[in-house]
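Ops channel
N.P.: pipeline sanity check, posting one input/output pair.
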């Protein structure tokens, strides 16, 4: 008993297969990106210390410690006049240091380190939702690509700091791995900007 060989119908099914799989693969890729962003966003709030090194120092606002008082105010057993003079001198020095520190802050230092970590966590949470929705996927993928690219500055700064005087072998290993990982993340996010290619028949007339 003989069976018919592959004909136009079989070829048509083969040509249709990529059309079916391409959108499904893109949805799966977007879901994986969303899951990654969601997990990262949660870690920003559960373990913010994990991200402290990758926030550049020049972006961090230097706030004066609340309730800071000159040490001379707590001294006892000295003459009242001497204590007053000592307190005034220390207060003047503290004010001078605070004014100098505020003057030397970078113009981009608008948030504290912890605030930057919280903001980036919220951005990743919003991106995790946007990348799952087809109508907002292209815009969100573009934003994620820009976000991962911006994160490069923090990872480079962290790696440079890891090899500085305060660096440790553990920090060097961690940041030597985290920096190169940004490249595939950027390419992955960029690939989600393009909708799944619609299948077209090649070789047909007309």
């Amino acid at each position: 008993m003989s069976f018919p060989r592959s004909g136009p119908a079989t070829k048509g099914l083969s040509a249709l297969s990529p059309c079916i799989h391409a959108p499904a693969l893109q949805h799966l890729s977007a879901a994986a990106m969303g899951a990654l962003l969601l997990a990262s966003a949660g870690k920003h709030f559960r373990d913010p210390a994990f991200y402290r090194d990758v926030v550049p120092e020049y972006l961090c606002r230097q706030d004066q410690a609340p309730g800071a008082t000159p040490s001379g105010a707590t001294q006892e057993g000295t003459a009242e006049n001497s204590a007053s003079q000592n307190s005034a001198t220390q207060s003047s020095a503290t004010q001078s240091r605070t004014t100098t520190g505020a003057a030397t802050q970078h113009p981009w230092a608008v948030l504290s380190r912890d605030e930057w970590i919280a903001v980036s966590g919220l951005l990743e949470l919003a991106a995790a939702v946007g990348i799952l929705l087809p109508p907002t996927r292209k815009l969100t993928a573009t934003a994620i690509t820009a976000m991962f690219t911006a994160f490069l500055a923090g990872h480079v700064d962290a790696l440079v700091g890891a090899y500085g005087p305060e660096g440790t072998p553990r920090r060097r290993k961690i940041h030597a791995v985290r920096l190169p990982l940004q490249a595939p993340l950027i390419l992955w996010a960029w690939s989600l900007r393009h909708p799944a290619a619609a299948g077209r028949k090649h070789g047909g007339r007309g």
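N.P.: looks fine end to end. Helices lie at 8-46, 80-103, 113-130, 134-162, 169-191.
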